[in-house]
Amino acid sequence: MRSLDALIIGAGFAGLYAIHLLRDRQGLDVVALEAASGVGGTWYWNRYPGARCDSESWSYCFQFDDDLVRAWQWSERYPRQPEILRYLNHVADRFDLRRSIRLDTRVTAARFDEAASRWLVTTEAGERYAARFLITAVGCLSAANIPDIPGLEHFGGTWVHTGNWPEAGVDFTGKRVGLIGTGSTGIQAAPVIAAEAAHLTVFQRTPNYSVPAQNHPLDETFRNRIKEAWPSLKARMRSNTNGHPYVPADRGTFEVSDEQRRAIYEQAWNAGGLSFRASFRDMMVDRAANDEASAFIREKIRGIVKDPATAAALTAFDHPFATKRPPIDTEYFETFNRDNVRLVDIRATPITRIVAEGVETRAGVVPLDIIVFATGFDAMTGPLLRIDIAGRGGTRLKDAWAEGPRTHLGLGVPGFPNLFTITGPGSPSVLTNMPVAIEQHVDWIAGCIAWLRAEGLARIEATPDAADTWGAHVAEVANATLYPTAASSWYLGANVPGKPRVFMPYLGGLGRYRAVCDTVAAEGYRGFTVAP
Ligand code: N01
Questions:
Q1: Most buried among 34, 124, 344, 483, by the most CB within 10 A?
Q2: If you take atom 41 of ligand 1, which residue's CA is the nearest one?
Q3: Which pLDDT does position 254 carry in this prediction?
Q4: pLDDT tens readout for residues 203-245
């Protein structure tokens, strides 16, 4: 058994930075165990056609090292998956991180040994590690959700989930493809698959909003401008609500005239990207305000999609705009004007089963050669609960969280000493520009570990009271917004049958959350108990 100071699970953005901080800045003996055959996390697995980031490239990166920022040149406004993966490999090499990473190593179980105050970690291959600190860097969207549709085993063609895409790719040439799911992934993949396949059928359950990405290459002038403004942009991202570089507008939807409102939406639509939802401050808290934005988007989609029945099915929204994570797209709605693309509304004609020839709906069989599941993830809690984690007294995390995740700040779990969950449930995480949220968490965790060592303390654990208070606050903040009104949202766990309905990410804003975390640390880790 290998003995360590800290064991990190995962080698994506979070795991890479955690190795660097703990190993190189604190001199700890650290290993990261990674299930994949390469570093990159999300960007290793999500190789599906059309996969891109929807944060601006130059903001979706590490910010802890100005030389790294200066050294890397992003080619596009929204980088494709291979470019982000190259970037993360560059980081791994630049900071010599690979020597602390074991690839192809899936962690299956972790048990807290109370007598020794150590985590005992087991891998799929049966290797064992003991570590003072266990740090999960498993991502929020890494446990693929493959729907339990009867008959999948009888399908005569090939099926694949977008979050587990084969490294060799999938050849769609001349194939009849069925794409199930119209979240960010399906909306990115559909146009690219349609351009290659003989035919594409998109199976849509919940109609989704999408705003154009307006992606474009970046030129030298733009890159230089960003580099010059970097200190202020970085400060903004750190203090902003969402970790993005854009500033949410401070105007109410009904404080402007109808013409002005329309012009603002038009401008946001043409600018593209996630900042559309920040064009008015009340969009996510006032239903009437949101309805205005929703009506504008519906009208835009109807203006793009030529077939009225398809346009109607695509815009029969059942939730306010952006209460489910809003996708941004490149010619998604235009794709339905192609002769080789058809939308099947599975609310109207539900899928009944999968048969050898394809997908059967109540309207008959859709013959297919390939089924692509763009059906999302068991988000936030899934990646943690797929590991058999047992804390004090042998209590399993899956039992402790049977009614939903219970954390203090999304960082610590009562009953699970010395376990740190990077971007865990209860933290802003998925509601932000992820690398900024990840750096904030890793900085905090590294600070906490340094403090424990300086104080000669062996253990830290979130108290049940602190977790309950924090959980109530997370719920209260969410309930003051429109977000929980989206019935099928993965933010609520509603996309996974049987999962408790708890709004998991923290909506209070990253800047405010950072201040709370800093205060907790400054006050000797209030809400945590410590022991020698
Ligand atoms: O997953 P999703 P995703 N039968 O859960 C449908 C991030 N991301 O992979 O809405 C039929 O959003 C489901 O239908 P419904 C981003 O945070 C970022 O697209 O539940 N359909 C939905 O349409 C994003 O939010 C980027 O009714 C079923 C779809 O599958 C998150 O990842 C790119 C079904 C799942 O949508 C997840 O996105 C991609 C079933 N049984 C992803 N089960 C960028 O940075 C589910 N669906 C650009």
A1: 34
A2: 147
A3: 98
A4: 999 999 999 999 999 999 999 999 999 999 999 999 999 999 9
| Per-residue three-class SS string for 60-78 | CCCCCCHHHHHHCCCCECC
- pLDDT number for residue 247: 87
Q: Is 129 helix (H, G, I), strand (E, B) or coil?
A: strand
Phi, then psi, of 254 in degrees rounded to 5: -100, 10
For residue 430, the CA-to-ligand 1 centroid distance in Å is 13
Q: What 3-state DSSP class applies to 203?
A: strand
What is the number of alpha carbons within 13 Å of residue 275 lying toward its C-beta? 19
CA 398, CA 420: separation in Å to the nearest integer? 16
Cα of 7 to ligand 1 centre, how many Å? 31
| Structure-token pair, residue 456 | 């000669």
pTM for the whole structure: 0.97
249 close to 278: Cβ distance less than 8 angstroms: yes
Report the length, in residues, of the chain. Answer: 532
d(CA 338, CA 216): 23
Distances 369 to 87, 158, 342 between C-alpha atoms, Å: 34, 6, 15
The residue whose C-alpha atom lies closest to atom 18 belonging to ligand 1 is 184
- The pLDDT, as a whole number, for residue 379 is 98
Reading the block at residue 163, the tokens are: 């979050």
Tell me the β-bridge partners of 49.
none
Q: Residue 52 forms beta bridges with which residues?
A: 80
Of 387, 527, 508, 526, the C-alpha closest to 466 is: 527
Integer CA distances (angstroms), 12 to 78, 118, 341, 499, in order = 19, 24, 35, 26
Say if residues 415 and 407 touch (Cβ distance below 8 Å).
no
- The stretches in the chain having pLDDT less than 50 are none
CA–CA distance, 5 with 360 (Å, rounded to integer)? 53
Whether residue 19 contacts residue 97, with contact meaning beta carbons closer than 8 Å, is answered with yes
Q: Are 521 and 354 in contact (CB under 8 A)?
A: no
- Ligand 1: distance of its center to the CA of 215 in Å? 21
At 289, the amino acid letter reads A
Residue 447 neighbours by CB under 8 Å, 6+ apart: 521
Assign 3-class secondary structure to 119-151. EEEEECCCCEEEEEEEEECCCCCCCECCCCCCC
In terms of Cα–Cα distance, which of 492, 412, 490, 397 is closest to 452? 412
Cβ(183) to ligand 1 under 6 A?
yes
**Cβ 415 vs Cβ 393: under 8 Å:** yes
Asked if 226 contacts 218 with a C-beta cutoff of 8 angstroms, the reply is no
Helical residues (DSSP H) of 104-208, grouped into ranges: 184-196
Which amino acid does the sequence have at 420?
Answer: F
